[in-house]
Amino acid sequence: MPLRHEPPSLRKAAMTVIGENFEPLCYGASPEEVAAMIDNEEYLAVKGPFVDMPGPVLAGVAETISERRALHRKHLHILVQPQLPRLNLSFGDADGFHGIMFVGQRCKNLKHLNLSYLRHINPNVLSSLLPSFTTIVTLNLRMTLTVDQLLAQIGRHCPVLRELNLFGTPITDRGLVQLCISAEGRRQCQRLQKLVVADTCVSVSGAAVVLQSLPNLTDFDFDHIFEAADLVEQWDRVLEARLLTPAGVRLSEQPVAPPDLLQLRALTSNAEFVSMDWVDSAVKMCPFTTSVTISGSWLPSEVLYKFMVLENLTALSLTNGEGLTLDFQEGVLPLLSACGERLQNLILASFTEIDIAGIGRTCPGLLNLALSAIGHFDPINSVNPAWFSRLNALEVWCDTSQAHAPVHEQVVSPCLLRQLLVSRNIKNLLFTACGTLTDRLFAEIWRDNPMKKLSHLTLDHCHGVSPQLVHQVLDAENELTMLRLWSCCQIHKNHNAEFSKRICSENMNMYLEWFAYND
């Protein structure tokens, strides 16, 4: 049966009790009295019991409280001590304004700070505090009002920064240049390893400066990476002047040679147009690449051959563009034949045809597989127990408009599902619009493979499954902690109530999510 709720550890239980009785334990007063102290700011005179508490314990108490409620200023005043190593002030988790104020005043050794989604905080407030953050290692500014001037301050005051998340912020190339290079031409943030700039106004020019300036960068979330790598390979004094001067940055006195190699581990592109020369440059400059992601482009199948030289490739994600220019037999399968032995993660989307047997033969160590919007699967006549025998996660996404089609018209055949579900290590399963999937087929598969490690199961528009199947899942020996039943026409609201009641009465540690079928 699924996992049951278990008693928390003594440490966790103690922290929970502290959170539930925070006012009398830390202020020696009732909640009403503490509220009055906050109104007249008398609470600031209370030192509390945590002045000499080890930093990791303080962080643990803060995290335990925030799991149940947002951290109020009464919590932050007591918990934000000079020895605090990390703090999450993300919107909804804490009072961001007072948290930032306390951190700036007290924490000179803070290592990890999460300010994500604090869109109401003026960037000038953050800028004034950055001189105190000289020890920051990870800084999350996702969806904040971070501007270019703030990046210049980060570059100046955060020399040991290793991770910076700028997703969805209003930054531009100018800010990235000033993050990496001072106004005097000195390189900054040289320890930065992970940088996220997705969903910003950063262009290929700014990305090229980042790649050229940060020698230890391994994870760069920028979705036009091929063109940026090509610019780095062409780097010269003229290009440097063209990219740096508009940002108000002085050129270095000595010409800066482009790096021979980049440390990037992932190549990601969602550009509609990608030059073959750009791909050549990226592969040449990034030999340590472990992950390649291409989506929405009009690249020909032959471009995939260029990735055959990547000796560390373990993850591949390919999504065809509108032109369906990538062909499985001509492009994907040859690449899998060259690199499949070490491939662990494979995502294929929007292909007209796929040969499952070819994937099984060439990728013996595959751990995670996702297949979406596939027009046709080459038929297989029998199950090979050696194929997909190590899978931990499987996702099969079909067209919801075909969810009610007869079994013989379904894209995914029963034999194909049996082949994909041979692994006894399966933990996560997701099926969308798989009309082939029925109670009977599930029972047959379970007889051969009971899936005792299954922890997450999602059935979306799977109209062949019934409430009886769900009860069988709840009866089976597994480690299920998440069950999502979305728009399955045989599973109604009363069934959801029935499942919820059973999960509660049998003390199952499980998240259940149900959506009605409305198509």
UniProtKB/TrEMBL annotation:
Coiled-coil spans in chain: none
Superkingdom of origin organism: Eukaryota
The cellular component terms of Gene Ontology attached to this UniProt record, alphabetical and capped at eight, are: SCF ubiquitin ligase complex
Protein's name in the database: Uncharacterized protein LOC117651913 isoform X1
InterPro entries (UniProt xref):
Leu-rich_rpt_Cys-con_subtyp (IPR006553), LRR_dom_sf (IPR032675)
Query: Which terms does the UniProt entry file under GO BP?
Result: SCF-dependent proteasomal ubiquitin-dependent protein catabolic process
SMART domains according to UniProt: LRR_CC
